[in-house]
Amino acid sequence: MRRVLVQAEDFDPGSELAALGRLGSGGVASFVGHVRGADGVVAMTLEHYPAMTGAALEALAGEAAARWSLDGVTLIHRVGRLFPGDRIVFVGAASR
Questions:
Q1: Which of 18, 58, 72, 84 is deepest in the core (most CB within 10 A)?
Q2: Residue with more model confidence, 38 or 10
Q3: Cβ neighbours of residue 14 under 8 Å, at least 6 residues apart?
Q4: Is 88 within 8 Å of 34 (Cβ atoms)?
C-alpha cells in the first residue's frame, strides 16, 4: 500500500496509523510535523505546483519502498494557509 496526498485539509494521525496497522505488518512508525510559532510567526501559506509536488513525494515514497521492505507507506503534506500548531506533514511506514 502506498498513499501520497497533497491537500489543504487537516488529517487524523490516528486514522492514518490505524490504516497502516491493518496491514498486519507488526511494526508501524510515524512522524507528524507541526507549524512552529517561534519568532512571532502568526501564519504561513504554502503554495505549490501540484504536478511537481505530487511527483516529488511519489518519488520519495518509491525510494523508501525500494530501500526497505515496507508493506505500506503514507505521505501527507498540507498546503495553503496554516497556523502555529497546525499539522503540516504525516509520514508513516509499516514493515514486518
A1: 72
A2: 10
A3: none
A4: yes
Contact 70, 64 (CB under 8 A): yes
Q: Which of 61, 92, 59, 83 is nearest to 10 (CA)?
A: 83
Please give the C-alpha separations between residue 6 and each of 10, 24, 39, 54, in angstroms, as whole numbers. 11, 26, 27, 7
What does the alpha-carbon distance between residue 85 and residue 61 come to, in Å, rounded to a whole number?
25
- In the block, which residue shows the cell 511519489? 58
Predicted TM-score of the model (pTM): 0.93
Do residues 12 and 30 touch, judged by C-beta distance below 8 A? no
